[in-house]
Amino acid sequence: MITYFVILNSFQNLLTCSLTKIKVFLIHQHLCQEMLKQVQHDDPYLCLMVNITNKVYSLRQAIANAVLKVSSTETIEAIQNKTVPKGDVFEFSRAAGLLAIKKTSDVIPDCHPLPVEFAAIQHNIEGLEIIISVEVHTIYKTGVEVEAIHGAAITALTMYDMLKPIDKNIEITSIKLISKKGGNTDFKDDLKRNLKCAVIVCSDSVFAGTKQDRAGKAVIEKLQKNDLQTSLYKIIPDELEAIQLTAKQLSEQGFNLALFTGGTGLSKRDVTPEAITPLLDRDIPGIMEAARNYGQQRTPYAMLSRGVAGFIKNTLVLTLPGSTKGASETMDALFPYIIHIFRVAEGMRHDE
User: Is 161 a catalytic residue?
Assistant: First the structure.
């Protein structure tokens, strides 16, 4: 492995030799491929970014600070009076920090490229210390804490470079994340009581035993990942009466959450929406609108799902697609956020 890096580092010298640039380029590509094979042989996931395709868009915010300490008041005065030989320290470093925020994914291999929709850099002088505060916002599927930290680091480093000719004892004493919000952990609602959950599979073929259920089991797995246990797992045929009877029984038995998978499509036997809709005391159209929007970003056929959601008395009923992928994606779209509905239903405020 080390040999490859040594050879690669020598290619600048090779360019001046008799070999043509094309030959050098081809050899360089071959060596890069061999390096990648060796790295992936040791760990096939070493060079991959984390998969965020299942995450939802949300407002993400982060604040990071860096502290730069000078050794004399003369340095502070030079900064304030804009007499530093290399220029306006605050403005130059602010520009460098903004560029660093936007270029984070170019220098941090595992960092996802993302749209930076707001960035601000402030300098505050406290004695001999300059506090650099960097705030970054985006509406995306992953956070911006690395962007904020990178911006703070480069802002501080730029100031260090500009000030070192007039202050040999300048130092960067800290770079740290102050706060972040907007990720899944912010929306995870830890209820004080356990929710009683049921997963109902509506499928003629699964009920008849000619097909194995995968969608229902995928839903149960998603519930477990959100710390929710399934108290009842049941398979019923695609019959309007059977679906309605099951929904009524779940409500009467005090289930908090009932998830029906299957029967939301457009075939003649897909009657789950027709069965559930008349039973709903309160329809919540936004739930399935969010699920379809999420699915539409992944497949153009998500708009064909006719899923509905709402309360039957105190039971929240969700109707999910019968395909394993469709059911899983709907769960990803709604959880853990949907759990908050039980707080709202009990009369609690959104911020409680």
Answer: yes
| Domain at 197-345: CATH architecture | 3-Layer(aba) Sandwich (3.40)
Q: pLDDT tens-digit profile of 72-82?
A: 999 999 999 99
**Per the structure block, which two tokens stand in for 293?**
């929007």
Residue 344: the pLDDT is 77
What average pLDDT does range 252-263 have in this prediction? Answer: 97
Of 88, 161, 204, 283, the catalytic one is: 161
Q: Does the pTM of the predicted model rise above 0.85?
A: no
User: Alpha-carbon dihedral of residues 243, 244, 249, 250, nearest 10 degrees?
Assistant: 60
Instruction: Look at residue 342 in the predicted model and tell me its pLDDT.
Output: 87
Are residues 204 and 211 in contact, defined by beta-carbon separation less than 8 angstroms?
no
Q: What string of DSSP letters covers 107-140? A: HSTTPPP----EEEEEEEEETTEEEEEEEEEEEE
More confident residue, 24 or 37: 37
Q: Which fold has domain 58-183?
A: Alpha-Beta Plaits (3.30.70)
Residues in CB range of 30: below 8 A, 6 or more apart: none
Tokens coding 305: 């799902």
**Above 90 in pLDDT, residue 40?**
no
What's the first-to-final CA gap in the chain, in angstroms? 55
